[in-house]
Amino acid sequence: MYELIQAAGNSYYIQSPAKIGLVRLSDTEVCLIDSGSDKDAGRKVRQILDANGWHLQAIYNTHSHADHIGGNKYLQAQSGCRIYAPGIDCAFTRHPVLEPAFLYGGYPADELRHKFLMAQESDAEYLTDAALAEGIEKIPLPGHSFDMVGFRTRDQVVYLADCLSGRETLDKYGVGFLWDVEAYLKTLETVKGMSARLFVPAHAEAVEDIAPLAQYNIDKVRETGDRIVEFCREPLCMEKILQRLFASYGLKMSFEQYALVGSTVRSYLTWLKSNGRVSARMEDNMLLWERV
User: Fold this and answer.
1) What residue spans define the domains of the chain?
2) Which pairing describes strands 55-60 and 29-33: parallel, antiparallel, or unpaired?
3) Distance between CA 245 and CA 199 in Å, rounded?
4) Which residues lie across from 280 on neighbouring strands?
5) Sheet containing strand 124-126, strands side by side
6) Do the beta carbons of residue 45 and residue 32 sit within 8 Å?
């Protein structure tokens, strides 16, 4: 773990729970794509930088989830690097309490105020084309998070952040976190048609051909949508739908999963309603969802 792997030319990634991209900008200067989950991850990254005599110029965050921005504060304090994050995700990077509050839909309980959902604050700036180092191109990848992006280097290595999950993860957990299902499916279709020397997803193996995994993710999203529609053969509140979804995948709910998957189920219901597959109505002061 935390092994530096050369993808091609000056493009590398650090093998870690959420892969961290590293691009050499010169003999001595590098930038990172994400920073790991916490201070300990940041420290391990710094050891890699020091061992190679590299100075960290910038961190480009793909999105604001804690396992991608957790090393920001430590690495910025150590190196003086600048940090950039895209769109709405920049605000969440600057104010991480927004993440558990958004997931929970209110002031987050103590069970949600921990490093896995709430990173330390970091001094992030908005990611613009002008902020990118020469030879690095950002790729919009919305859906999993608000304004998530990936990056392509001049070595034709593409860092895909969290826009897809590995087969093993999908088979084990069934449903992954999503913010906008429609945007996510469009992102996956775009990724399916991409070509590159190597694709580096944050939570799946690096591969030369990403199309089969992208299609597998598309199939799993549609499968989850179909399950939710089937549950709604009778009018159900969101809590009941969430309960049945966990039961159907053989999962046991925790407080954290309640927030993460609960938020995702609401996003699925919005998508299904927009596509005319379910309807919503109030009955006895309860919002009920029903198959159309």
Assistant:
1) 3-162, 230-291
2) parallel
3) 31
4) 289
5) 3-8, 11-15, 20-24, 29-33, 55-60, 82-85, 124-126
6) yes
Q: How far apart are CA 203 and CA 223, in angstroms?
A: 21
Give kind and range of the element (H or E) at residue 282.
Answer: strand 278-283
Over 90: is that where the pLDDT of 52 sits?
Answer: yes
Instruction: Look at residue 285 and tell me whether its pLDDT is greater than 90.
Output: yes
DSSP per position, 215-231: HHHHHHHHHHHHHHHHH
* 133, two tokens: 């180092």
What is the per-residue pLDDT for 23?
Answer: 98
Per DSSP, the three-state class of 266 is: helix
pLDDT exceeds cutoff 90 at 1: no
CA nearest 59: which of 159, 175, 189, 144?
A: 159
Q: What is the mean pLDDT of residues 98-124?
A: 97
**Contacts (Cβ under 8 Å, ≥6 apart) of 199:** 157, 158, 160, 206, 207, 208, 210
SS3 content of the chain, % helix, strand, coil (to 5): 40, 25, 35
| CA atoms of 118 and 98, how far apart (whole Å) | 8
- CATH no. of 230-291: 1.10.10
Pick the CATH number of 3-162 from 3.60.15.10, 3.30.200.20, 3.30.70.120, 3.40.50.300: 3.60.15.10
**Is 265 within 8 Å of 179 (Cβ atoms)?**
no
Output the 3-class SS for 162-191: CCCCCHHHHHHHCCCCCCCHHHHHHHHHHH
pTM equals 0.97
Instruction: Tell me the C-alpha distance between 137 and 217, whole Å.
Output: 24
